[in-house]
Amino acid sequence: MLSYERRCAEIVNQTSLLTSSLDGADLGIRVPSTPDWTLNQLLRHVGHAHRWADEMLRERLPEIDYSRNGAQLLSSYVGEPASVLVPWLNEGAASLSEVLSEVAPDEMIAPLAGHPGPRVWSRRMTHETVLHRWDVANALGVPFELDQEVAHDTLSEWTALALPYAFMRWPAETAPLVGPGHTVHLHATDAEAEFVIDLTGPTPTVREGHEKAAVALRGPLVELVLAVYRRRPVEGLEVFGDAELLALFLDRVRF
């Protein structure tokens, strides 16, 4: 996993990489991977998520205040130019990174599922920015590259947060995934990153390492990240074993 300090830095770095692609961009276009939003609205979503975490940490809230999250209230954002959004995004990322650096990583501020808020939010906002940077790059048709260490942490966070969240949030939809022998192996071909997702019990468990599973999905690390986040189909990646289980798994586990 990335260190806490690295994540604090990556929030700023990933936001800077995102905004660097916006020069001359039409922010009114729809984003294919988030079709309900324009590029303008997606950028506001990212910035408001940063500010939400920032505010909770600065005020040292003892629990998460979801009422302060403006990242979904996006209908009013129309026709804004990049000259307004770029500095707003960069300033918000810098402020969040600053407050994360000022608090102790293990303070119980805005904790999530019993985990210290600073650690959780440093990781969540790093990878929230990574994923939406891909959304922006894909919408604009510009190249997307991601450091392998960051990509490994993105995939690891998905197994630790998005996967159990889906089973908690949509129990009826995820119930068909549970069964004897139901295991999914994610195997990066360009990095030492392998995860085995065990679906044989009522809640999923995850192990790192190589072992035989009911179905394996193999490919470059970044492509695995995009696949589990439903940003790309599995076509072009290697699938071994129960392809129907994999298709159901990727369909039902969303975040």
TrEMBL record:
InterPro entries: DinB/YfiT-like (IPR034660), Maleyloyr_isom (IPR017517), MDMPI_C-term_domain (IPR010872), MDMPI_metal-binding (IPR024344)
UniProt cross-references to Pfam families, sorted A to Z: MDMPI_C, MDMPI_N
GO MF assignments: metal ion binding
Start and end residues of each Mycothiol-dependent maleylpyruvate isomerase metal-binding domain: 10-137
Domain MDMPI C-terminal: 153-247
A GO cellular component annotation in the UniProt record: plasma membrane
PANTHER family xref list: CONSERVED PROTEIN
Name recorded for this polypeptide: TIGR03083 family protein
